[in-house]
Amino acid sequence: MKSDIEIAQESNLLKIKEIAEQIGLNDSDIEAYGDYKAKFKLSTIKNLKNNKAGKLVLVTSINPTPAGEGKSTVLIGLADALRQIGKSSIVALREPSLGPVMGMKGGATGGGFAQVVPMEDINLHFTGDMHALTAANNTLAALIDNHLQQGNELNIDSRTITWRRTLDINDRALRNIVIGLGGKTSSVPREDHFDITVASELMAILCLSTDILDLKKRIGKILIGFSYDKKPVFVKDLNIQGAITTLLKDAIKPNLVQTLEHTPAIIHGGPFANIAHGCNSILATNTALKLGDYAVTEAGFGADLGAEKFLDIVTPNLDKNPDVIVIVATIRALKYNGGQKLSDLSTEDTQALKEGSINLIKHIENMQKYHIPVVVAINKFATDSDNELELLTSICREKGVPIEISDIHANGGKGGIELANAVVQAGEQTSNYTRLYDDDNSVLDKIKTIATEIYGAKDINLSPKALSDLKSIEDNNWDKLPVCIAKTQYSLSDDPKLLGRPKDFTLNINSISPKLGSGFIVVQTGKVLTMPGLPKKPAALNIDINEDGIVNGIF
Question: Which of 383, 388, 408, 477 has the highest CB neighbour count under 10 A?
């Protein structure tokens, strides 16, 4: 089979104006970025508010192997398949980050015959959203340090500054740095840090904002540190929220592209689910809902991370609750969760599959707690044996959950017809969305609820710093916000080596940070890094370009 990028480059794309026409839009509703990309005008989104919302399908997954399990591929193929059975569907996806593209996973636009295109553009610079976020983030950092340099009227204690600089690439050398060296003209020396752009609060704010005024209001609420008399200092105190918002005036507009089968795809925002809330923008999802019968969207990593955050943080801000949850599973990942070595995953092992299936069962049970119909999609690999497929199918049916084998990677939408029919059938059932916790609960109660109900922990343990952070949050009355837990994607626990369905473990909490612009509290667990590093053999080693400007090797 050809590589993903070869398949993408050989496809016949429609002009973006034709894709817009499919969903009832014309030239005046979009801003074209060349022939195959466009942004929605904010006026267009505003005009859609009174349109009836379609069905909302949330695609999530089990805990993955390091290579990922093709969740985006299944989502894209499902949307294509819905069109093949006569439904008007629209994809709503996150934007790729250069960190994974150049790091471990490579491209993030689907795979095989289920991709969003133009693949190279989306994976690289796209329409410049990531660059705008990086620039806005670092402009804010520069203005904070300039305030210290120019007299520090707000009496900011530089040791308490929480705002970090960002870069949209994995660069471990910048995790912990010292700035301001070089004398009086080079600002105040202090410790600083870099996060990857997708971990920035600005990314979360962009994805949770409902319009440009909401964006500006949220930016003004960002906590940047404390004064020497322990009073919180916000961006609005510097009076620079207008300038930062201006840098994001185009980035807030969702992007329109297409799948290989010409299904409209809205791609916007890209917070990581292991260190942020992991979902594309509210503007993108709401727009998709108003333009099709089915909006098919994604939550990052496993259901313990992205889906929980989508349901507890994002859904209350959407125009529509999810109607169906699709959990993507692979034979490979379940065998990995059952103890089979990564190097042996292509070998049949029904015992490892049976033992690892408890991971899938836990995710099913977790999603059912929200009282939304669940469908399981097996993303089929060529190495899956008939015995393994039959075993997993029987396990899910014993749980009373619809399960369909999809061959989307090899066959595109045609390989997801049965899955599409199952999703339509599930979408006709009653969905009584129920949130896991109430915002009025204490911060500790909210953390414990997620830890025990979703992860399966017996208890939580707070470090001395986390206890101090919690006291500050309570003293400042910031405790009525939802919580966003930063945790490894490889395990239900905070230990990536505890696979399957770990029990009787304690969730270790290192710090608790108020993200007042985003409107949630970040709870840092385990050893999750907000600035990842590159592997020994990064994906960048495979990427090249020829004399005609043709890119290869992204995936």
Answer: 408
